[in-house]
């Protein structure tokens, strides 16, 4: 119960910390001090205190979508080993839950964007749908490879890999590459999307949420930060040598791994430019190829063991 309570505590704090670390890394590279690490928490508190403004063309879909996105992000976090050990909730094939709760939040925001009747919001929704169509099979290939490599049927057990031979190492490396790109796409980070831009012709996620304000915009920002933490936690658990154990070493290693993942994301955003929109699917295909390699390596290892 103690470690599950720590998972909840981390879920309430780490999304703000990781988002702040990414911004601080980008600021340091540009020679600026940058905002405080917990700036997102201050922004969310400020937005919660404001009332939302609605267009006359919007319906209840627009009003409900931010809360659906936020709740679905927290629901996905509930089955993720945020601190390397047991998650808050676990059941067989729970990784399907993670994939489709993320998809639910994404679909809700796309419907809200279409509900505004804005051409820019619709353009962002169309781009998001295109990227999602390529991204979904990657998520299942990654989790399928992890299940084959570990012989487990739950997410937290599958992530606690024990590498003993060549195919396992190949699959592990390919999974890390594929998941890092998945994280960039899901969290709307560079080089797939630029969360700091307001140039309509290049926006994806920001184009969909331009019409939101107040507490609803706070819910959307919170959902994005939680997804960033979940993605970083999966990466950290993959490289955590004590993953799968409810120990303080596992907790410390996962928190440090999440911080390093956020630093890596910040460095990527500084050192790489946003790719052209027509090249984004090709970039996502790199993750698809890596996921296929991971699955083939896992199947080869499973056949050899059998």
Explain the overall architecture.
By secondary structure, the chain is an all-alpha fold. It has one domain. 71% of the residues lie in helices and 0% in strands. The chain is built from eleven helices and no strands. Helix 3 (60-78) packs antiparallel against helix 4, helix 5 (119-150) packs antiparallel against helix 7 and helix 7 packs antiparallel against helix 11.
Write a concise keyword list for the protein shown above:
306 residues, mainly alpha
Question: What topology emerges from the helices and strands here?
Answer:
Elements: H1 2-29, H2 39-48, H3 60-78, H4 95-115, H5 119-150, H6 155-159, H7 166-186, H8 205-208, H9 214-239, H10 248-271, H11 280-305
Helix pairs in contact: 1-9, 1-10, 2-9, 3-4, 3-9, 4-5, 5-7, 5-11, 7-9, 7-11, 9-10
Short description:
With 306 residues, the protein is mainly alpha-helical. The chain has eleven helices and no strands.
Largest sheet: none
Helix/strand order: HHHHHHHHHHH
Number of strands: 0
Count of separate structural domains: 1
Q: Tell me what portion of residues adopts beta-strand conformation.
A: under 5%
Class by SSE composition: mainly alpha
N- to C-terminal distance? 37 Å
Uncertain spans:
none
Task: Please tally the helical runs, counting DSSP H or I stretches of 4 or more residues.
Answer: 11
Shape: globular
> What would the average pLDDT be, to the nearest integer?
90
Please estimate the helix content.
over 70%
Q: For this entry, what is the oligomeric state of its chains?
A: single chain
- The radius of gyration over CA amounts to 19 Å
